[in-house]
Fold:
Amino acid sequence: MMHAFFLSSLFAVGLLLWAAARPGKKRHPLVGATRHEALRQLGLDERADARAVRAAHRRLMARYHPDRGGAHDIAAALNRARDVLLGN
Structure:
């Protein structure tokens, strides 16, 4: 179970890094706005509740926040995914 969670989180972070590292490509502001994409970006499954969303967002932001050496694009994508899942 933990191995699958680690791999899905690793995939989500890799996807965010790949999207942020594409120079010259304009990204639509609502990319990843679907529930499925938001769940994948936060490394969650379909059964995730609000508590799990907040915990995953906090865990990933602690690692990828711009103030801690992360990229602004990744933090923005994580915030967008949280907002989509929590209905903000």
About this structure: The chain has one domain: 2-23+34-86. The helical segments are 2-20, 35-42, 50-64, 72-86.
